[in-house]
Amino acid sequence: MTSAPEMTADKPQMKISEWKKIVAPFQVPSVPRAVWQLVNTFVPMVLLWWAMYESLAVSYWLTLALAAVTGLLVVRVFIFFHDCGHGSFFKSNRANSIVGFICGMVTFTPYAHWSWQHAVHHQTSGDLSRRGDGDIWTMTVKEYQEASPTRRMFYRIIRNPFTLFIVGPLVLFLLYQRIPSPRAKAKDRASVMYMNVAVVLMVVAMSWLFGFKNYVMMQLPVTMFAGMAGIWMFYVQHQYEDVYWEHGKEWDYTTAALEGSSFYKLPKILQWFTGNIGYHHVHHLSSRVPNYYLERCHNSHPMFHSVKPLTILESLKCINLRLWDESDRRLISFKEYRQRYAQKTPVAAAAAEEVDPADLPAPSEAGPGLS
């Protein structure tokens, strides 16, 4: 069983006014800590880029190995970018915006636009009535049963691990993040254009420094490795068996944070590379706690200790989870769906049915985001 957050059944959920007092001491940004994180991440990243360039003359396998480590550093940079978007990395909004934009260039992600989408994710995570922005497309069993063969096929393609973790990284960061959402405000849409220009200038500068072919041979695997790791982290944060989902009025913010966000227990080295974001239950409870205080906040109160950790081994089982079963209140695999529900569903003549464009999901349904 891939259960993660599991609160004690006999203890009532803490009120917002109560937990706000608990997290308040950890919501004060530390400039020295933030600056040190930037230094201990960007300095080795620059050195690794130079090492990758030199390794091209030795062995491309060595280049790929170095790209994997560089990709992990990019994940760490994304956490800084993410904290800046929440206004938690620095005290100054201006500093957050400047550093956030620079980190956005490194991660190929528009700062203001992504921050808006991610804020929506925090406001709606675990709410079945408000899915579609900044999350991974998740259908309920009932929705899947009622879907047309075309929509089912598209859903299966999107939820396939090959699509999510192999195709997804390059599509998400090189293409999807280049296009603004029609629902975004004008300033957020403009931020996509600004970032696109900045990315082009960065590519030109890096191509001038290393040569275009050499740059592409380094940048693509770095983006691939970073994207795979980042999407995986986002996936296991909200896609485990006993995750929390509720409809509209039944949805509760505190419960969604503590039961709908995993406590991903990682080895210290991976915890460092991922900027402590494995303490995702703490982050969703209060996004104003910067990454460098998440572990301290978790250790500070018994409220967080009742959240069951998700181990790496347990998280691997999450790969097969596809549908939210409202009757059992858990995510299930397609295999389990077939065993439990397939015979109750009328057989559809998928091969004979024409593809109706109306059956295809909106881009926001298919596009995964990072937390």
From TrEMBL:
Record GO terms (molecular function): oxidoreductase activity, acting on paired donors, with oxidation of a pair of donors resulting in the reduction of molecular oxygen to two molecules of water
Presence of the UniProt keyword Chaperone in the record: no
Coiled-coil regions listed in the entry: none
Superkingdom assignment: Bacteria
GO cellular component terms, A-Z: membrane
Keyword list, A-Z: Membrane, Oxidoreductase, Transmembrane, Transmembrane helix
Biological process terms in GO annotation: lipid metabolic process
CDD domains in UniProt: Delta12-FADS-like (cd03507)
Pfam families the record matches: FA_desaturase
Bias (Low complexity) ranges: 352-363
Name of the protein: Omega-6 fatty acid desaturase (Delta-12 desaturase)
